[in-house]
DNA polymerase LigD, polymerase domain protein
Amino acid sequence: MKHTRSDNTKSSITIEGKKLHLTNLDKVLYPATGFTKGQVIEYYAKISEVLLPHVKNRPLTLKRYPNGVDGEYFYEKMCPSHHPDWIQTTRVASQHRKFVDYCTIDGLASLIWVANLASLELHTSLSHSDNVLRPSMIVFDLDPGEPAGLLQCVEVSLIFRDMLRDLGLAGFAKTSGGKGLHLYVPLNTETDYDRTKTFAQALARSLAKRMPKLVTANMRKDLRKGKVFVDWSQNDDHKTTVCVYSLRAREKPTVSAPIAWSTLETCHKKKNASGLVLDTEQVLKQVEKEGDLFAEVVSLRQKLPELAV
């Protein structure tokens, strides 16, 4: 990454032979901590080695915060018309219009270009751009309804992991960056969304039957109080989900970070999940020490079994 000019507010850099003009680098995007746009870009540059395999060549929804996390934000599915000609796009059929041309990230230059748009969060498809109708994974979003919280999500995740193991499947956990957890089941084999969504719904309902006092698989908000909602509905070709290692637009610059099952077991045993919400510095230190705990989500090949519930 070569700098050709810089000051406190802007910088011209060359990455992978592509010239980028970075702007408003000293603008505070996280007022509670003073975390600036320049620091957002710096984080994405530092984490890129482990992030890129997970975001690369997947349709990407931008979640942009031009005035910081306390200001208005917007989702941007259609890649901005002013994008450089080296930014790749993927055309996907849409429910609300004929198609959407999503941005895709193919390397560090495009990742930094996206970060410079104040797209704090990276929301990716479960499919790759070369086959948008074939999901490479299944995702479950464990979302607690007060007074349930992250500790209850930990308890549910461990039971969920065991259910997956009984089916011959390995699962991987990451934090939402806030009060919940996300569970991923890598596939990387031939399948389609009809099958993965049906499987996800059935497994979520099975878990709810097993733990009715703590779990619901029903989307109705009035049924979520004090329970963990296992959201299976993200398994859809029209939807995107926050990518691992993405920043979250919370009060502080927290990250959707991979968490080892052994860590979740310890949290459950100690009945303390406070250490699961990680910021950028903590995630960078975790990666330096443990590597990419989500690496197998990209490479592990698994076939869905038949599920009778």
User: Anything to note?
Assistant: The chain has two domains: 13-125, 137-298. Residues 37-55 form the longest helix (19 residues).
